[in-house]
Amino acid sequence: VVWSMLGNRQFCSYKMTTKTQNFCRNEYNLTGLCNRSSCPLANSQYATVREEKGRCYLYMKTIERAAFPRRLWERVLLSKNYEKALEEIDENLIYWPRFIRHKCKQRFTKITQYLIRIRKLTLKRHWSPFPEGSEEKALIAAQLDNAIEKELLERLKQDTYGDIYNFPIHAFDKALQQQDAESESDAEREEEEDDEDVDKREFVEAEDSELSDFEDMDKLETSSEEEQEEEEEVEKKASHSKSKGKTPLKGPARRKRPYIEIEYEEETEPSTKTKAA
Amino acid sequence: QEKLALKKKRKKEREALGDKAPPKAIPKTIENQRVYDETTVDPNDEEVAFDEATDEFAPYFNRQTVPKILITTSDRPRGRTVRFCEQLATVIPNSHVYYRRGLALKRIIPQCIARDFTDLIVINEDRKIPNGLVLSHLPDGPTAHFRMSSVRLRKEIKRKGKEPTEHVPEVILNNFTTRLGHSIGRMFAALFPHDPQFIGRQVATFHNQRDYIFFRFHRYIFKSEKKVGIQELGPRFTLKLRSLQKGTFDSKFGEYEWIHKRREMDTSRRKFHL
């Protein structure tokens, strides 16, 4: 009906005639020609392939939706992979007329080919291996200051500088700070245990600290791991002793509290026992 | 903007999952994606070690020669270039600046060799700024031709340090991975005397990143065992290698070991030569 009105006889706004052929300007047209089988207006079941921003879509029109112009065309995104997309077209247009299926696939092939060509052309024009700001980006990626600092620290570790820098002192300070932080946050029980061991440790520390001093005098190397471990252990113990001396208020004060608490506990224990008995 | 939205989504998902979240994905960088260069030097490569023992820098690395550098410019240098040459001379120990009054390089070179110079640096100038550098190792050594960019003189660098002292600086060569990069690195190393004076606490760095070589000159202090502070003295510039010739500077008959051919070599954005 539609075709008999528009196509051949009367006026179709999409139709363009030339000497040899009639063309159809409708954007949903599959072949571009004005034919009975290619007219999207005249066929109630129709499909096309169109591309948008480099991606191809399969548009389908079925007779059930003829009453809803807004939902008329159903759109399916096709895969970027050529073969997969052909399979997708086949899946979606299964049971559809051979003509439409075939022409859809042809159109899709043409579209992908011209997209490839577009990509190649733009590549030849604008592609620059070292783009404008590449030096600055390389500079940022280089992170020169960090790299230099790392390298210098590496060289320090590997003892290329020899005896110039003495670092046990610094390590002591660090360990001190660590110890202070730890002892402040320690639980009471841990402090009790430490205190019980303190007396024992006092003797031990004195011997070890003397030894460690001598060791440091002899070997000024800071890089060997064993010595670092020893130093750390010594530091912890020494910092204990140091914290006693250096923080007179805090140290004894801290220890006073647990001492007091111990006494209370002892007092209460016998009382409960007597009560029970 | 879409990327920002995606990132936010991912963050939310990660927080929602808590401990079960998959480990953070490593972002792709150009360094990660770099096309593997077959000429990358393996530290244990014997062939490379043998080559280096017998190439033109062997006498330097065996401490038989002491570097003596001649710095000069192209004809009629302008103020900026002159000042840059002077600063470069303070950075590189045992270097001398001579003005070129229209003398051809081919004639200079025999004179330099006669006077015991080991290296020649020519700074090319264009429109009052230095833009090229030719580094030539003299007793018949390789010649490297660089394009120089982003030159900063000492007063243009934001720092409060004093001038570099006369102490011999240390040298850091970063990221020279391929054979070509290795030979260029050795060229740079040969400019400086082999025994740095650590008292001076100065370090000259040549850092290669994506075929750009960044030169920096710093003074360092070790604040503690794991912290070092650096302060930039000295000029800075970036170089890009244009060509490497086998013999001394000879533009017509020289045997080129490597030229940067724009069309052929720059095929991929992730392929670098140094």
UniProtKB/TrEMBL annotation, chain A:
List compositional bias (Basic residues) regions by residue number.
239-257
Origin: domain of life: Eukaryota
From the UniProt entry, list the residue stretches annotated as the region Disordered.
176-277
Q: Where in the cell is it found?
A: Nucleus, Nucleolus
Major subcellular site? nucleus
Q: Name a GO CC annotation attached to this entry.
A: preribosome, large subunit precursor
User: What keywords are annotated for this sequence in UniProt?
Assistant: Nucleus
Annotated Acidic residues bias: 181-197, 205-216, 223-233
Any one biological process term the GO annotation gives: maturation of 5.8S rRNA
Pfam families attached to this UniProt entry: Mak16, Ribosomal_L28e
Question: Can you give the residue ranges of the Ribosomal eL28/Mak16 domain?
Answer: 1-114
Family named by the database record: Belongs to the MAK16 family.
The identity of this protein, by name, is MAK16 protein
Supply the source organism for this entry.
Oriolus oriolus (Eurasian golden oriole)
Automatic annotation (TrEMBL), chain B:
The record, for InterPro entries, names:
Brix (IPR007109), IMP4/RPF1 (IPR044281)
Could you tell me which PANTHER family the record lists for this protein?
Answer: RIBOSOME PRODUCTION FACTOR 1 (PTHR22734:SF3), U3 SMALL NUCLEOLAR RIBONUCLEOPROTEIN PROTEIN IMP4 (PTHR22734)
Keyword Isomerase listed: no
Q: Which SMART domains match?
A: Brix (SM00879)
Instruction: List all Basic and acidic residues biased stretches.
Output: 13-22
Q: What is this protein called?
A: Ribosome production factor 1
Please describe what this protein does: May be required for ribosome biogenesis.
Cited Gene3D superfamilies:
Probable brix-domain ribosomal biogenesis protein (3.40.50.10480)
What residue stretches are annotated with the Brix domain? 67-250
The listed locations are: Nucleus, Nucleolus
